[in-house]
Write a structure and sequence with these properties.
Blueprint (H helix, E strand, L loop, with lengths): L1 H16 L3 H11 L10 H10 L3 H18 L2 H17 L5 H13 L4 H20 L3 H12 L9 H11 L2 H8 L9 H15 L4 H18 L4 H18 L3 H7 L8
Helix pairs in contact: 1-2, 3-4, 3-5, 4-5, 5-6, 5-7, 6-7, 7-8, 8-9, 9-10, 11-12, 12-13, 13-14
């Protein structure tokens, strides 16, 4: 059991903190050979299986662990496992996804402690993003609001929350977004560009100003330092909305020129 506990700590470090997938996979290999009698390793084993897109195997691990922790009535593990089950189903056939997301939130809200709070706040965003991705903006706002009420620092994901807020025209959300600051400077050079665009939108900069910023600063970051297909699609959409006002449709083609180029 002691070896299993140590492997849990190592896996958490390699996978969630260092993003070292080679070491995480080696640790997972050793972890999967443990007895897992107390089901404590199920959180990491199922998460790794989900990452590897082994959905049915992940669901089997989760269901076994859920049965165990429902008997023990341990809310924290139930909250995390219900979220993992929702994500596995979402990636697969989406059956009962909303129910399991709701159960995850319910159990984590019942759980005291810093770790549970961190998981809960992350889940507020993740569940909100699920609804956002499915264009259910009104439902997404419910969870994004809970997320922002915990005063997170800026990350590029805030751009999606801003878009959702624009779609719903929720004034309370606009006020919460105005209070967001840049926070951690460790990713300053990259985050700063997206944060500046975020603030420009909130401060109602002109379409021409926004267009120039995307075609210069944003494009430079996406082309050379932080390639993200999701962000490329986001700014393509931003330029499309801007072009309807400025009529500068060539700006979209100009932005798209770098998409096929790889970062050196």
């Amino acid at each position: 059991d002691l070896e299993e506990l140590v492997l849990n700590v190592l896996f958490d470090h390699f996978y969630y903190r260092d993003f070292d997938m080679v070491k995480a996979e080696k640790t997972y290999g050793r972890l999967s050979m443990c007895s897992n009698r107390l089901q404590i390793s199920s959180l990491f084993i199922s998460g790794w299986l989900l990452y590897k897109e082994k959905l049915f195997t992940a669901l089997n691990v989760v269901d076994k662990a859920l049965a165990h922790f429902q008997t023990k009535k341990i809310a924290f593990y139930l909250g995390v496992l219900y979220f993992t089950k929702a994500m596995a189903l979402y990636t697969g056939n989406k059956e009962n996804v909303e129910y399991y997301f709701t159960e995850s939130i319910k159990y984590l809200e019942r759980t005291p402690g810093k770790l549970a709070r961190v998981k809960l706040v992350n889940n507020y965003f993740n569940v909100g993003f699920y609804y956002y991705f499915d264009r259910n903006y009104q439902q997404a706002i419910v969870f994004f609001k809970k997320f922002l009420e915990n005063k997170p620092s800026f990350s590029v994901h805030m751009l999606y929350i801003l878009h959702c807020t624009e779609e719903t025209k929720c004034e309370e959300m606009f006020q919460l977004l105005q209070n967001i600051d840049l926070g951690d400077r460790s990713c300053y050079q990259i985050n700063d560009v997206f944060f500046r665009y975020f603030k420009m939108k909130l401060n109602h900069k002109s379409e021409k100003y926004l267009e120039n910023f995307i075609l210069n600063e944003v494009k430079e970051v996406l082309a050379t330092r932080f390639r993200s297909d999701n962000l490329i699609a986001y700014f393509e959409n931003e330029l499309s909305k801007i072009a309807k006002i400025t009529k500068h449709y060539k700006s979209i083609a100009s932005f798209n020129n770098f998409i096929s180029h790889k970062i050196d």
